[in-house]
Amino acid sequence: MATHPTIGESLRQEGYRLTPQRMMILAIIRDSSDHISAEEIHQKVRQQYPFVNISTVYRTLNLLKKLRLISETDLGEGYVRYELLERGRHHHLVCRRCGESFAFEHELLRPLQLRLLKEYGFTADVDHFAIFGLCQRCRPAEEMNDVRKEGQHGAA
Amino acid sequence: MATHPTIGESLRQEGYRLTPQRMMILAIIRDSSDHISAEEIHQKVRQQYPFVNISTVYRTLNLLKKLRLISETDLGEGYVRYELLERGRHHHLVCRRCGESFAFEHELLRPLQLRLLKEYGFTADVDHFAIFGLCQRCRPAEEMNDVRKEGQHGAA
DNA sequence: AGCCATTGTGCAAGTTGTTGCAATTGCAAT
DNA sequence: ATTGCAATTGCAACAACTTGCACAATGGCT
Ligand SMILES: [Mn+2]
Ligand SMILES: [Mn+2]
Ligand SMILES: [Zn+2]
Ligand SMILES: [Zn+2]
Question: How far is A50 from chain B (nearest CA, A)?
Answer without folding.
Answer: 30
